[in-house]
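Today's session is about reading a structure prediction critically. Students often jump straight to the picture, but the first step is always the sequence itself: look for stretches that repeat, for charged clusters, for runs of hydrophobic residues. Only then move on to the predicted structure, which in these notes is written as discrete structure tokens rather than atom positions. Here is the chain we will use throughout the hour.
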Amino acid sequence: STLDVTQASSLYKSKGKHRVYAIYPNGQKHYIPSPGVFEAYGYSWDSIQTVSQLTLDKYPDAHLVKTPQSHRTYWLYNQKMIRKYLPSPNVFNSYPKNDWADIITILEEDLAFYPEAVLVKDVDLDSVYYIEDNRSEEHTSELQSH
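Below is the predicted structure for this chain, in token form.
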């Protein structure tokens, strides 16, 4: 039910772009990944406001999400369109910028657009690696800042 998700206070897109974002009362934005997901939320196409990219950039991406069907919390890596499950409160709290108040509840259909990430880190090194198709790609800046 859409009553169980975090309700958007506004819907924005920037001039000349097709990406639509839900803006939440906590000041975060979340990309709506498809017309089907947009409609599953019950949003109206007439409610989308066109704003400058500068205005849209003032809202940080919502990174912490869960669905109404589960208490599992995920970190969304929006640039890669992947997610990482945070399996315990200790793991959640190990990231200094995580805040329980920042978790938004999204539809399962929305979360499904973010495949599960495989991240690997050596305890003695700062680098974190994203594994895809048996190849790794280093991700230090985004992961270490959270």
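Discussion point for the tutorial: The radius of gyration is 16 Å.
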